[in-house]
Amino acid sequence: MGSGDEKQDDDLGLFREAMGDVEPLRHDKAAPWRRRRKPVPLELPGDAQPGDEFGDTAEEAPEFLEFRRPGIQHRLFQDLQRGVIEPEASLDLHGMRVDDARRALGRFLDQSLKARRRCVRIIHGKGKRSGGQPVIKQRVNQWLPQRKEVLAFCSAPRWDGGTGAAYVLLSRKWGGV
């Protein structure tokens, strides 16, 4: 039995020697694996036109979208940016005309608020089909702050759409913050 204990001690010693200058990985930088969700189909409520409340002026959107209402904690916003707060539903606005996208976004936000969703993903694209100009992205960046129920939004993490999508943090109170 003595030789087995010596071999185990030798193995342990060799292992410790080999691992002596190894530093532990920092886990807060790793992007968590997330399963992609399919966009939620919209229900069209009669002749109502959600999204008509959005004003329109053509503004150039930055590459990375960021908006946070006063009072939203920095840590909460960081969690949104990192994808720690997982979207509960998605809306894909790819290929839509501006008016159609506006109405779809209004309906989607109304449905999400009624369902008490905390975080949703809006896929706006990067504008590759519109002459290099991200038209829908620009409008989404303009429209979202106009809804008081939108507490914050930012570009999605790279693994979930990156600059072609936005994570939106919603108030759980219907009709306002």
Automatic annotation (TrEMBL):
Region Disordered: start-end pairs: 1-53
Species for this entry: Thiolapillus brandeum
SUPFAM superfamilies named in the record: SMR domain-like
Span of domain Smr: 91-171
Gene Ontology molecular function terms on file: DNA endonuclease activity
Pfam families associated with the record: Smr
UniProt-recorded name of the protein: DNA mismatch repair protein MutS
Transmembrane segments: none
Entry-linked InterPro entries: Smr_dom, Smr_dom_sf
